[in-house]
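Deliverable D4.2, example record:
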Amino acid sequence: MPSANEHSGSPCRHLSIGGVSLRITAGDRSAVVIDAQHEPFAVESGCADINIEVQRLPCISPSSQRALFDSGSTWRLCDCGQDFRFDFGYPLAGHAPAKRLFVDRTYRSATLQLNWLFLSKFGDRIPPLAYPVDELLIMHRLTQEKAIELHGSGIVRADGVGNLFVGHSGAGKSTTTRLWTMTEDVEVLSDDRIIVRRDTSSPTRIRMYGTPWHGEGMYASPNSAPLTRIFVLEHGHGNVITRLSPSQAVAELFARSFVPFHRHEYVDSALEFLQELVDAVPVYRYAFEPDQRAVDKIIHFHD
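Output generated by the structure prediction step:
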């Protein structure tokens, strides 16, 4: 992998997303631009979980190497022996990658190469860490930690109670978020993707973190909160809450998680953490109706 060196005096930016800190360095300031989506997650300098060196190249040649995973359009992953390589494409770029990311197998050191012949046409409209580069890098880093990304809406009430509503697309996350924000004083960490991890200050507790990857409501907070309960959303009648067994809860959450499936150890790590998660936080199935009674049911609910 091309080296991701620490450049003394080089332009750099720092981000913190879901408890993962990133340090981005480059030879010039234009290569470390942070877009509006990431700006709320910018932090002061400090130790980084992932060090990323950005390189601008005149062009990047296509690769014929067999992929471990191919999304079919946006990105493909190859195993290069000591490291992994992600190629990111855009339709207008043709067969040549617009970006190429080399990362070591612990996801701590990365080199992000930019196809400047292509990207310079768009100015700052396609920043180096623009989706899906950011999410893929962090999602893979979470495989090395006690953490996971879930498809859900994280809502924190004024009294500090943090509820996570998970669900597939169309299950009602956006509707649930809208109902809560219409009537209650709440903070929405994200209305689409939440990172859940062990609380470093209290290992027996779990925290949920907002992410930049929002849904229809555009909620994307850099904050976090203790996680009190998890509700698996589905449309139903009567606003029925049913406690799930640990095995049921793990299966439901895994089906709504973002886990790299190309290596069995990543899947095993995710399942192991989900088992710890459901042992620490109660998980319920919530068959709800899309009106204010759905919120009232949660407010007056007791485990």
